[in-house]
Amino acid sequence: AVGFLSPARRGSLMTAILVFYVLCGILSGYVSSRLFKSFRGRKWQACTLLTATLFPGICFGIFLFFNIFLFFFHSSGSVPFLDVLIVMAMWCCVAVPIVFLGAYFGYKADSIEYPTVTSTIARAIPESSGIFDPRVAMVFSGMVPFCAAYVELFFIMSSLWMDQFYYVFGFTFIVYLILVITCAEIAVLACYYQLCAENHRWWWFSFFCSGSTAMYMFVYSVFWFKSLEASKLIMTYMLYFGYMFLISFAMFLVTGMIGTMSCFFFTRKIFGSIKID
Question: Pick from 75, 216, 200, 77: which is nearest to 145 by CA?
Answer without folding.
Answer: 216
